[in-house]
Specification:
There is one protein chain. The protein is mainly α and 104 residues long. It has one domain. 70% of the residues lie in helices and 0% in strands. α1 packs parallel to α3 and α2 runs antiparallel to α3. It starts with a helix and ends in a 14-residue tail after the last helix.
Length: 104
Amino acid sequence: MNQNTIEDGKTMALIGYITLLGTLVAYFMNRSKNNEFATFHIGQALRAWITGIIAGFLAKLLIMSTGLGLFSVLQYVGLVLAIIGAINAMNGKVEKIPFVGNIG
């Protein structure tokens, strides 16, 4: 992947990490351009947000069943993964996010 591809795709890649809606917007923006860098980061953003939804659901189940509010920390997993991915995209790196970057 050359530097021009990375520079052209940075905006779409960063939009993908803003929210799940941003991921959908970036996906549809990238369909016509088919930028390889943006496509990679949109996929990583989707993994981050889906992981966040699942972790939030599990956190609520664990809090309800155990009564321990400590599990509420799990609700931030998706946000942390998205921030890591956004930093990678901003720096022009093609690195997978931790734990779930290889899934799919």
